[in-house]
Amino acid sequence: MLLYILRRLLIAVPTLLFIALVSFWLMHIAPGGPFDMERPMPEVVRANIEAKFHLNEPFLIQFFIYISNFVRGDLGPSFVYQDFSVTQLVAQSWPVSAVLGVISFCVSVPTGMVLGTIAALKRNSKLDYLLMSFSMTGVVIPAFVLAPVLVTIFSIHLGLLPAGGWEGGKLSFLILPVISLATGSIASIARVMRGAMIETLNQPYIRTATAKGLSTSYILFHHALRPSLIPIIAMLGPSFVAVVTGSVIIDIFFSTGGMGQHFVSGALNRDYGLVMGITLIVASLTIFFNLVVDLLYTIIDPRIRV
To answer: Where are the transmembrane segments (predicted)?
Structure first.
């Protein structure tokens, strides 16, 4: 197990460095700069600013300086929010995005598994068709389409839930963003779980257990569930990425104050340091979570370690 973890870490570190290099290069070649949005400044002033932030250095030296600071937890300055560093802006918005993402993820995984299992146990019934119709709809409707529909129904017409804001993460402010984020993952997990469970239930050892008179619940939890979890574990990484990337749109639409709002603000205002910092934070979390998923995968199916 330790050797497998070391191998995965040896892959994760170069992957993060490659993402950082490509992102930094894209920021470097992007037209304009953070100071082009302001009124024209004297060349001497511009040269002093570029020297202060190492913008006059060659590309590779700039990249090395940035990575060195990133390892120490310094994401650099924000050129638009001049009273704050990127680290401070991320620290302010990170809790909101973390709460929203974790809740959405924790809702989507068990809900999708339960719905998929029910559909498998009731396969080819009206309930199965209903659940799979919901699943298909949830897969094809993105969060940025579902969110305004939910707001129109539950906020504008019914007045049951707030249309946006955060208010310290109160439950009423969480419901619509979480539903918007989690629906796609619930639908995807339900479809995969149904297929995996049906395949498992058709195995000879399941039929043998049924012939012995064991109850359906006993067979489900003691024989069928664990093999059916293997494809679900493999889906956790993509589901997490979907929640993280979807939260950018949700942050903007519901004005939650999360990292998504800072990311878009940085992109629109050419605050490349802010965009770069958030990109690396999200990439680091994604790589770390995929590493955790790989470890879970080896626990359920030890053959993966070979």
So the answer is: 9-30, 98-121, 133-159, 171-190, 229-254, 274-300
